[in-house]
Specification:
By secondary structure, this protein is an all-alpha fold. Keywords: Membrane, Transmembrane, Transmembrane helix.
C-alpha cells in the first residue's frame, strides 16, 4: 500500500512540474521559431511594382 502512495505522489509531482514548466514556456515567448516559420512571406515592396488594389465586396461604390 505504501508503494501505491509513493507512485501517486510522484505522478502528481511530475504532472505539476510539467504544467508549471509548460505555462512558463508559453508565457515568455509569444513568437517561437516554429510559429514564425509557418507565417507566409511578405512580398517584396518595390517602388516600380505597386500592390494591386482589391475591391472589397462590402464597400460598393458606383
Amino acid at each position: 500500500m505504501e508503494a501505491l502512495a509513493v507512485t501517486i505522489f510522484l505522478s502528481l509531482l511530475l504532472a505539476g512540474g510539467f504544467v508549471i514548466l509548460f505555462l512558463g514556456s508559453q508565457k515568455g515567448t509569444r513568437n517561437s521559431l516554429e510559429q514564425e516559420a509557418l507565417l507566409p512571406l511578405d512580398p517584396p515592396q518595390c517602388p516600380g511594382n505597386p500592390q494591386p488594389k482589391v475591391k472589397s465586396p462590402h464597400h460598393d461604390t458606383p
